[in-house]
Amino acid sequence: xxxxxxxxxxxxxxxxxxxxxxxxxxxxxxxxxxxxxxxxxxxxxxxxxxxxxxxxxxxxxxxxxxxxxxxxxxxxxxxxxxxxxxxxxxxxxxxxxxxxxxxxxxxxxxxxxxxxxxxxxxxxxxxxxxxxxxxxxxxxxxxxxxxxxxxxxxxxxxx
Length: 159
What we know:
Elements: H1 2-30, E1 57-58, E2 66-67, H2 74-78, E3 84-92, E4 98-108, H3 117-121, E5 128-129, E6 144-146, E7 153-154
């Protein structure tokens, strides 16, 4: 007797679930303006990506060509597949002290899994994700990027 009740209970919940799904589909059928599907690439010029979208890792620079990267290498250590390589050099400051600065901050976009570990673990918030998403190229070497701009230097006040 109990198995027969469970059998009809399962049929009832199955039909109820089907009707709920049909209600959602039917509401979009009668209100097509509620659909948020993007018509890419027709809307390429007007396309606005969501805030959470992760395009590629960038190193923001200010108008004086300064960045916040101290060259500590934490992003390189935390990257699970070796996407980031920080090449640093040591300079002698005016005080006579030795200071480590970045020479090149290499980012291999083709290897990146967008796990965000590099951005989240950066102690100086030097890395961020951009909204750029069109990265199709015929030559893989174009996916290897230097994040620090030529001639850039560490932003004052960042240690």
